[in-house]
Amino acid sequence: MALRNVLVHVDASESGKLRLAMAIRLAVRHGARLTALYVREYSIAQAQRLKSSELGLVSGKQADALSQDIEQELNAHAAELQVLLGEHGHAYGVETVWQCIEGQASRVVPQYSRYADLTIVGHDTDEDPDLPDEYSFAEAMLFSIGRPLLIVPPSGELPEVNCANATLGRHIAVAWNGSRASARALSDALPLIGRAERTTVLLVDAPGLSRPDRLPTATVLDHLRRHCPNVHGHSLPVVDGPVGELLQSASLEQGADLLVAGAHGRAGLWEKMLGSVTRDLLGHMHLPTLLSC
Q1: Among 25, 112, 146, 263, whose Cα sits 20 to 30 Å from the Cα of 140?
Q2: Class level of CATH domain 171-292
Q3: Distances (CA, A) of 217 to 178, 179, 221
């Protein structure tokens, strides 16, 4: 199945604008329509400013003025992003759709994601006063949207990348250990792999990973060559350290701009039951990653 309908969650931060630029280039490669979803919710800094009025520390007139200022800020962010989307769409000849919705991203994004082939979201493990309080919701999205999820780390975590040259999916690294989770991720990524210039399969053999009976590693390479002719295998050594860091380092060394990996965990207890590799990837993310569970 080809990608025809891509959704990207955007915000006014530099990372949000970078995410939009990356999504546009991905849509170009796949001939897909791109929908940019902006959720109007207060940032941490805006919410803190409102607390003073709720506690009665300012006059009613000042409280009204403060609320109006914040609404104007949200309007300005929405207008800026809508213009940016239009400029990108015109420059690259991509069909774009703008959606501006009131609410919380953790509730709104999953609903819209279920009507998209692929959803692109951001992920920041550090508290950023310019982002909503619940902006780091990528973990919850994994177990709530039921669709392929591509997570982009903050721009500061990406090596030597900027809005002028950021790409997604030209060179894809696939983490493979023969488990159910890695098979699901591989299946979700096939539309991306089909349009990639190169695919590198990271053949993982590490303590603690699911290791069911597996066919020879050549089997997965043969399967992927039905979708992308330029497929190569790269074996990773057995390690005692964080496997997530190993996967990302190997991906970057191979020149990949996207990592595909299976997410291990349980939907009902995602906060406590994320697998160690998944938690490591999300806790120290250095390149865009497609996760499936």
Answers
A1: 25
A2: alpha beta
A3: 9, 13, 7
